[in-house]
Amino acid sequence: MRDGSLRRLVKATVRAIWWVELTARRRLRPPRFRLAGTCEGCGACCERPTIAVGRAIWFLPVTRRIFVAWQRYINGFVLVERIREGRALAFRCTHYDPETLLCDSYDSRPALCRDYPRLLLHQPWPELFEACTYRVVDRHGAGLSEAIDALELAPGEAVRLKERLRLDDGPPTDSS
Length: 176
Fold this sequence. Notes:
Largest sheet: 3 strands, antiparallel
Shape: elongated
Radius of gyration: 19 Å
Number of domains: 1
Low-confidence stretches: none
Structural class: alpha+beta
Strand content: 15-25%
Strand order of the largest sheet: 2-4-3
Number of helices: 7
Helix content: 25-40%
């Protein structure tokens, strides 16, 4: 389902408003986490876009129907699951081709798609798709990492602990 000119215009307008709000939020309160790693194009985020929603959308059927209708008719996302843990809605994207791992409307994709996984960095404990090759790293974990290094742990235990606490000290790939 390729986007027509009207849908492209609506998406561009909403995306511009979203970017202004997102930029302001990130400048006022930088995220606790940063990204390490790179995108290797697994398609997990394209195949099953998942959106955490607020209470009004989750608990009020009318607002949820409006939200889901917007996702369907503007973004091409078809609702497949309501995930109680984290109050999230999982969708199937009608623009994504699982065989080629490509989007048929890549140039007009929604901001959600353009900014994944960076948009998750403001969450208390961001969770990425299992296949995602990015890693989430705590920006302020250097002191804790040093404290773990000073402990007498079994071989490999310090590495596993740092991974679980997101203290990986690999080079950052993203500044926000």
